[in-house]
TrEMBL record:
The protein's name in its UniProt record: ATP synthase subunit delta
Membrane-protein topology: Peripheral membrane protein
InterPro entries, A to Z: ATP_synth_OSCP/delta_N_sf, ATPase_OSCP/dsu
Major place of residence: membrane
Similarity comment text for this entry: Belongs to the ATPase delta chain family.
Amino acid sequence: MAKRVSSIYGNALFELAAEENKMDALLSEVQTLQQILLENADLLSLLNHPEVSKIEKLDLLKNIFSGRASDEILGFLNIIVEKDRQKDIPKIFEYFVDKAKEYKGIGKVKVVSATELSARQKEKLTKRLLETTKYTSFEVDYQVDPSVLGGLIIRIEDRVLDSSLKTQIEKLSKGLSKLSVEKEGVVGLG
């Protein structure tokens, strides 16, 4: 249900940004608000508190964000509070940011390697990803995991390219085990 709520409200904000031709501005603003909510968990707790009335919540938002947030974002936050969906704000914003970045051609990629990649390796990898995908730029999350032994594991959306030595060794091992079992079966028949 929360996923559906986040997509409904996230899509509404996305459509507003597209219609008003304010995608960049609203994306930047929402990302700033995400950071504010992350750093001030008490604000979200207060917005979710059952003993704080809607009017008090709306006044709180107005006092905090008036003059700092656009009319579109203030109006959007008011609607969310009016509909008692304030607990979903982080997921709604996350959905909107992902959709806005997709619209702008910005991909998110996670790269796992056994050792830290050099700047040149990162540059070559990014260039190759741009050549082979629909994206115009990437936000790359590089992680080091010595257990992959070598090679890379690249995750873009729901696609995974795993060229790690660990996976190749596991596949080889399974193949050899299967071959060994088949060979024993053939010998056992004779």
